[in-house]
Structures are given as C-alpha cells and as structure tokens.
Amino acid sequence: MPKLQGFEFWSRTLGGARHVVAPMVDQSELAWRLLSRRHGAQLCYTPMLHAQVFVRDANYRKENLYCDVCPEDRPLIVQFCANDPEVFVQAALLAQDYCDAIDLNLGCPQMIAKRGHYGAFLQEEWDLLQKMIQLAHEKLSVPVTCKIRVFPDIDKTVRYAQMLEQAGCQLLTVHGRTKEQKGPLSGAASWEHIKAVRKAVAIPVFANGNIQSLHDVERCMQDTGVQGVMSAEGNLHNPALFEGRSPAVWELVEEYLDIVRLYPCPLSCVRAHLFKLWHHTLQVHQQLRDELAKVKTLEGIAAVSQALKLRCQAGVGLRESRCVEDMSRQEEGAQPAGDLPFFHWICQPYVRPGPREASKENSGSSKRALEEEEGSMDGLSKNKQKKQLRNPHKTFDPSLKPKYAKCDQCGNPKGNRCVFNLCRGCCKKRAFKETADCPGHGLLFKTKLEKSLAWNGTQPRRQEPPQVGSGAPGAFSEVLGSALA
What we know:
The protein has 485 residues and is an alpha/beta fold. The chain has three domains: 6-245, Aldolase class I (TIM Barrel), CATH 3.20.20.70; 246-330 and 340-350; 407-445, no CATH class. 47% of the residues lie in helices and 9% in strands. It contains 23 helices and eleven strands. It has helices spanning 6-13, 30-38, 51-56, 58-66, 85-95, 111-116, 126-139, 154-167, 191-200, 214-224, 233-237, 249-262, 267-277, 279-284, 286-294, 298-315, 324-328, 355-364, 367-374, 382-390, 424-434, 445-458, 475-484, and strands spanning 19-21, 43-45, 49-50, 76-81, 101-106, 144-149, 172-175, 205-208, 228-231, 437-438, 443-444. The strands form two sheets. Strands 1-2-4-5-6-7-8-9 form an eight-stranded parallel beta barrel, surrounded by six helices.
C-alpha cells in the first residue's frame, strides 16, 4: 500500500485522533497507555527511545518495544531521540513494523538532552534536521512526525515548522514553551505560537501545553485550530482527563494495577505513577509516602494504596460502597484544604509552583530539608545514613577527607608513584608519546618496545621465494623443472 501522508494519514491511520497521550520517559509504558485509552485517549506515544541504543542493543529493543505489543494499543507512534540521520533511520526501520508512525524528539529540554545533543538542543541545526527527516521520509514505510518546542520569536517558529514540513514531516506536535521553560520556570505555554504554526503549514498539528482538563482541550482546539491536543502532566495526575471526569484516585489506581499484572513493567514506573496519582493525599499522610517509597514489590505498592484509600474513606466517614458523587457531597461547610479545587482524594491537576513559591517551599518543606529534620543526631540525610550503614567507617566531615595532590596538567588527583606527577590519563598520553615507562601506573611502553626489538633480532631471516620476472635468466625455469622432476 502507498504510504499515507498529511491529513490522509491523520484521518485514516490515526482515526482523526484528537485526544493524545504524550511520550513520557518511564511513564507512557504499555500499561499506562492502555489505562489512558480506556478513559478517552485516542492516540498514544511510546516513551522516548534512544536511537543509537535501539540499534545496537537487542535487549533494549525487546524490553522497550517488541515485548510491549498489544492489539488494543493502536494507533501508536514510536518516538526516538537522535542526532545522526543514518542511525535514526536504522532505528526507525527496526521499529516501523510495530507502530503507525515514527516521531523525532525535538522538544526535550532536559540537561541529559543537552549532554547527548538531541531533543530541543537540535533546534538551531536546520541542515541536520532536514537530512534526518528527508532520509526517514524516503526510507520508511510509515510516516515520520516531529515534536518541537517554540522559539521566543513567532516568525522563527513558523519558519522552523515550515522547514520540517518541506523536509517530509507528516504531522507536527508543537509544545508552546521554549527550551528554557522547564521546572519552576515552566510558566504558561503560548497558544499564539501554536496558532501561527497551524495557519502556516498544510499538515496536521497537535498542541501541547496548559492542558489540565477537558475544558482546556476544547478551548485550545477552538483558539488555535489544531487537529488534536496532547497532554502529559495533566494525564499523569488524571488519566480520565479526556473523559471530562475527576474520579476517586483509588478507582484509577486499582484499574492501573490490574493492567500491570497483565502487562508487567518496571516497579519504578508503577511507583512513579502512584506518586503522581496520590500526590495531594500524600501531602496529608506523610508516613504512607515513606512506605510507598520503600516497598519492593507490586503487592506491597498495592497494599500502601489500599491503606491510603481506607484512610481517605475513614476521613469522610463513608464506606467503600458509596459512590464518588455521594462522597463529593459532604456536609455543608466542608471545603477542600488549601487551594485545591477538589478534595485531595479526587484526581485533579497539579499546578507547578513558580520560582518564588518554589524557593519558599524549598526553604522549609523540600525533600532535602525534611530528610535533614528526620535524620540522625549527626544531622545526616537519609541518603548519607544509608551509605554509612553500608560502610560504617565512611565519614562526611570535609575536614577529615584525605587531601590529594593534583595532576600537573588537568587538576585531577595524581598518582602517588607516578614518575611524571600526573593522573593516569595524562600519564598514559605522555608515556606513549615519549615511549617511556611509569611503573606507578603500570605503563610499560619502553619495556615492551625493547622486548619486541630483542625478539625480532633473535629470529632467523626468512628466505624470500624467487619472483617471476626477476633474477637471472632461466631461474624460474630451473625451479619449475626441478619441481616437475
């Protein structure tokens, strides 16, 4: 069949999907995608996969895609991060039979993306991106799509989107934040940027950012004219977001754990999801927060969740049989604590604190501050206490730490017996360059060379065979004649 493109691909292959679950590292695994699909999601992305690792490691392919095949998990788009056209296409070729499209991540703003030179840190390298998209568009049997972040300037963002479209991108997801907008500095996403891109390109566009409820989804589509809306953090705190519901947390937790039992995933993923779903309740029941962090089995996590459920129900004086609607109609005058729109045991959005609010929170209620308060008499954090349990002789007093002499070249600790007063790395380079030895670092370039020369000198010289066309006349004939005789 010919490869579908643009709006035909969106309407036929993706079924005109409007409610989309974003690619989320360690969070959009198969079990979570199935839960989201049960509650209104029409299209899901895999977590971001590293193209180079996907090509070289068969186990990585098996664990992250090949074993996560499920008929209900379609349509599905596999997302890769990459910075090399050939590697990106090789990875995509290995994945294309398990999905409906391949997405190139151009939106990750995290430090790991900066170090690996991928994600949003490629957005200035237009020539490279053109090559990657063009090659994938030519070689793959499925369409190639992109997820991008915006530039501060709307015109540059529009030109960026048009460049990707011309290179062969068949669907564009636009996150309305710049790569600098992350963590406490996230701020609001710019729907104006998304609207400008939608008007400037002739391919389907998904919007991402500021989505906390179904009302936000409808308003975003109306204001920007996009074909679909993608949710990440909103979906993590309320997987029923696209249904327009805010159910009790335990309802979705129990459903998710049932799916995990059918389609297992790493325990770290399960724990992370429950921390998000129970986020507001765990601010109330801190002891159970610690228990959730410590349990080592799926059944242990389920037990902590059940304990949270019972505490919430006991707190409002209701039995398990009572429905959520009855629970929300509590006695007159009862109001949610703090600034929450619903009671803490109801799935609801999480609003990131701004820089000032975050600094206030960190001053007294941050994880590190709490750890130090709960620490031992020596004021050690929990992490340091664990290290000391493993090694009772370990000290964290800076004045007691051993002082190391520094390498003359790079500043790293030098070898105590190095003949050049260097660290091992610098010593190796110098010893190789000068054909010298450093017994302190076990480098014997000079000794090995001398042994090699001595060994070559003791070997008898091999007699070279006569060559055709050289030597005295008739020499070859004599050798041939004697051989025949």
